[in-house]
Amino acid sequence: MDAGQRTQPFRGAYAAPAPWDTFKLPRYAGITALEPYLAQVGLAAANDQWNNQATAAHVALALEGKAQQVLLDLTPNERLEYAILAAALQQRFGKRISKENMRDQLTHRRRQEGETLATYAADVRFYACRGYPTFEEAALEELALGAFIHGLTPERLKEHLRIMAPTSLNAALDEAERVEAVMIPCKRPGPQVCHEEGNVEGRVVLTAPGAVKGGR
Question: What is the pTM for the complete model shown?
Fold first, then answer.
């Protein structure tokens, strides 16, 4: 094999990556969430084309603290099998989330005061995917869309989306962000309460309570 030839990731015998390919994984001590760390491992393995044993070796050498104890649970051969090492880490540090809990979270999720629409939408999609992993894509999209609108605040924004009837969560998010951008709070003494007056050229127009129409 040519010295510069890379091995395919997760396949074949172990071969150390070439110096220009080396990607040093961040340390993992079992304190932070495991799932994002394993996602980083996957990115590094794909980028540097590590095979199965190379990936396991990189991960094993990046472990510290309590996470290092996982290595003592495995045989020397198992330590060089990435799937086995990752499973051992999952058993000790993985987040155990039941589908029932995710479904409950989806049902009761409401947009919080000050929360961005993008953050709210991301949570809804996460709960839908984790709660209903066997759903087909179309059914999952419909479920997430319904939950997004159901828990949306303020109420007038929710009503607007119900009228517009978006067909996907992304479309609902885009429309909600567009409309919310023109919902400017009233600048007047006292409580900042606005009422939706109507639509002008596709935009939501807000007026203060008691405002006189017609410019009078």
Answer: 0.52
